Amino acid sequence: MTRFVLRRIGYYTFVAVVLAFFALPLLWLLTAPFTDTPTYRVEWPDFTFANFATIWEHPYALGSLLNSVILAGGTAVIVVALSALAAYALSRVRIPGRDALLYTLLLLSSIITGTAAMVPLFQLAVTAGLIDSQLGLVLIMTGGLLPAAIFMLKDFMDTTPKSYEESARVFGASPLRIVWDVVVPVVRPGLATIAVWSVANVWGNFLMPYLLLSDVEKQPAAVIMYTLYTEGGSPNLRLLSTFGLLYSVPVVLMYLFVSKKYGFRFHGGIKR
Amino acid sequence: MALETSRPDGTKTETPAAPVRSYSTDAAGLGTRRALGFVAPALVLIALFLVFPALWVIVLGLTNYSLTGAAAADPGFVGLDSFVRALGDGRFYNSTWLTFQFVLGSAVIGQAILGFTLAKVLQGRIKPFVEGLVILAWILPGAVVAFLWVALLDRDSGSLNALLGIPGFAWLIDHPMLSIIIFNTWRGTAFSMMLYGAALGNVPPSQLESARLAGASGWQQLRDVIFPHIRGHILTNLLLISLWTFNDFSPFLLTAGGPDGKSEVLAVFVYKVALSGGDLGYGAAVSTVILLINLVVAVFYLRLLRTRR
Predict the structure, then answer these.
(1) Contact assessment for residue B28 and residue B20, using Cβ atoms and an 8 Å cutoff
(2) Chain B partners of A272 at a C-beta cutoff of 8 Å?
């Protein structure tokens, strides 16, 4: 009996410590934006919304969020389109060397990380005039995400039935028409997963835009956030807290959306 | 120049397919040629922006390319000089040692053990709540969570020092490695927690039950029943989180490698040498080493996946 009690006490102590450990850093993001004069310390908020005005007053804050949307959206569109085409072809047609290709893709995407490739990417961007080009950055990030996207989508398409395509073919539909009208609707959940995954990856990416975009007007929220707390002088906590919150909310909403709609299915190695 | 070398195989496959043979065996009647056309655009982007940089880093590492000075205008081939230089560079050794501590401390010990423990012991109504918080720490943007930790650990007015009653304790200055290790444990535990959560579902409850009836202690159940069933998951988990942590750039957001290089893990070292310091050739040589280590870990991981299937 005492052993049982001790175990319960141990369990609740552990849960309490874990809760505190994970909640403590996050609390500030909930309280500071709504506090009149926020400090580093977590305080009971005054429930004011006045701090959000600082975002409108700041020359780059809103623009950077828009830049994040452009970069994430652009990357997601290209990744979904190209990986869907490739994954479909690899799933349905026995292209010679297919398994070796998939294996190589998976290997490449896991070893060529931002850290390993930052020097050549920077040097190439300078040489090719892609510094400060949002399109260049989108293409670079697309190249990085495509292998894993193709791999995940191919797995997904392998499990969808081929019978719809076959019957459409019997009725004389052309292959491209079949892909667009029959395959796309069937694999839509897979496409949505890849889109959300790409957006989340680009939205949080700091290193690549930090390296490749030096024009403040083109930088996404990740870089502006970093600039806000590292530039000289005491940081403007009203701006930092509200901006940080605004920049975080879309990720949380996306997560809630995905886990509600599809259930949070676990993909090993989904995050780079 | 070299950008063009990777293009031929791309354009070759992109040329419009000749009249497709009337009967292709695949479901949609795509045929091999059109299928290659479907794969080509993705492969071109991967070749240009992923494979080529990885090969280019090896070439760069053999030059003395730099951002400024004489070597910027006229970079020369220096062979393995940069690698030899790394062997004698105390800063590189220091950085490698710190990276080892970072991976061992935050990934292997921190994330894996905490993640497993959470997956194993959490139960009841509190479970989804704790899991939600752990996942939140994982999905928030890196720049935001880094600042949250800067605020938490602030020497004079941070919440942690206030809570522990040790005002003036300078975490990021006096204990930078400990700070980034704890930070990365906090940041990345979610992945291990979810992976072990899925893995523990594979352990047959009947075996656990009979072990318990036979009087096995908690530790014995863990060692003799649970671990043998999830060995593959453990290895997968350790390899992946080690790879990610090894390549993680977020310590830069928290300490920027400082003070005095005391938290300068390899990712930050490369950035500082090559991009702040302008020594692209040397930075590329160190990147090549990172790439090779990644390759070893990834090949090991993929072989493991193959044998498990």
Answers:
(1) no
(2) 244
Name residues whose C-beta falls within 8 Å of residue A263's C-beta, 6 or more positions apart in sequence.
Answer: none
Cβ contact B171:B155 at 8 Å: yes
Are the CB atoms for A142 and A202 separated by under 8 Å?
no
* CB spacing of B150 vs A110 below 8 angstroms: no
Please judge whether A120 and B53 are an interchain contact, meaning their C-beta atoms are less than 8 angstroms apart.
yes
Structure tokens at B103: 């991976």
Contact A40 B157 (CB under 8 A): yes
**Residue ranges in chain B assigned as alpha helix (H):** 2-5, 8-14, 31-46, 52-61, 70-73, 81-87, 90-102, 113-121, 126-139, 142-152, 159-164, 171-174, 176-200, 205-213, 218-221, 227-246, 251-254, 266-270, 280-308
- Nearest-Cα distance to chain B for A89, in Å, is 5
8 A C-beta contact, residue B278 and residue B67: yes
Interface test with B, best of A40, A94, A95, A141 (most B CBs within 10 A): A40
Q: pTM of the full predicted structure? A: 0.87
Q: What is the pLDDT of residue B18?
A: 46
| Min distance A10 CA to chain B CA atoms (Å) | 11
Do the chains contact at A175 and B28, CB–CB below 8 Å? yes
Do A246 and A203 touch, CB atoms closer than 8 A? no
B159, B179, B233, B270: which to substitute to probe chain A, counting the most A Cβ within 10 Å?
B159
Burial group, residue A131, by CB count within 10 angstroms (0-12, 13-18, 19+): middle
CA-atom Rg of chain B in angstroms: 25
ipTM: 0.88
pLDDT for A262: 66
The shortest C-alpha distance from B206 to chain A (Å) reads: 23
Interval A10-51: pLDDT, tens = 999 999 999 999 999 999 999 988 988 888 888 888 888 888
Q: Mind listing the pLDDT tens digit for each residue in B140-163?
A: 999 999 999 999 998 888 889 888
Which residue in B137, B249, B274 is closest to A26 by CB distance? B137
Residue B197 exposure: Cα atoms within 13 Å on the Cβ side: 20
